[in-house]
Amino acid sequence: MATCRFHIACAPLLVCVMLLGKNQEGMEAVACHQYCLEVDYITCPSSGSEKLPARCNCCMAGKGCTLHLSGGINQTCN
Ligand SMILES: *[C@@H]1O[C@H](CO)[C@@H](O)[C@H](O)[C@H]1NC(C)=O
What we know:
Helices cover about 40% and strands about 15% of the residues.
């Protein structure tokens, strides 16, 4: 009887752990890498030639934006 109750208590817990694991996988795909480039400013197609505040990397800046790095290097995000 004791083991039976143990299993019943554990089943929802196991499901929870599995769902949690699934969620983390999903978030991993969406979350940006937490690294920072030496970005002076960025420009995006939506802003035209306007200089936007620096973003750490392409993931945060968005697709089509250009990171203008210190040192005169431009990195286009695609
Ligand atoms: C980067 O972009 C800026 C602004 O458009 C431009 O003045 C500069 O020449 C570009 N630098 C390189 C290395 O392409």
